[in-house]
Amino acid sequence: MSDLLxxxxxxxxxxxxxxxxxxxxxxxxxxxxxxxxxxxxxxKSKPTKxxxxxxxxxxxxxxxxxxxxxxxxxxxxxxEMRRDEGRRVDYP
Length: 92
Description:
The chain has helices spanning 11-24, 28-45, 53-60, 68-84. The N and C termini lie far apart (42 Å). Helices cover 62% and strands 0% of the residues. The chain is an all-alpha fold.
C-alpha cells in the first residue's frame, strides 16, 4: 500500500477526526481512511451536477463536523470571500 500525506489540516478538523476515531475505537489513520472511502463511494453514487463542493462535503460529513448553524456561517464566510475576489455568487 502507499501513503498519503495531507498538509495544513486545520486544528478543529484534526480534533474532530481524533474524536471520531476514539468514538469508533480506531486509529486516526483508520478513521481517515474510512471517511475517505465513504466519501468516494458517495461521490461515485450520486451526480454532483446541481450541487457545489460545500454541499457535497456537508452531506458526506453530516453529523460529524459542523452543526447547521456553523455550516450556515461557514457558507456566508465563503460567499463573502468570493465577493471579495470579484467572483459571481449564485444564490439558491
